[in-house]
Amino acid sequence: MTAERDAFGFYFSAHPVDAQRHLLAAHRVKSFAELASLPAPADGGRSAAMMAGLVESINWRTSAKGRRYMMATISDASGQYVATVFDAGPSADLEIAAKTGTCGLMTVELDRRPGDEVPRVTVKHFQPIDSLAKKTRLQIDLTIADQSSLAAIVPLLAAARGGNGLVRATLPVSGEREAMLVLGRDFVLDADLAARLERLLGEGAVILSAQEGPKLALVG
Question: What is the pTM of this model?
Answer without folding.
Answer: 0.65
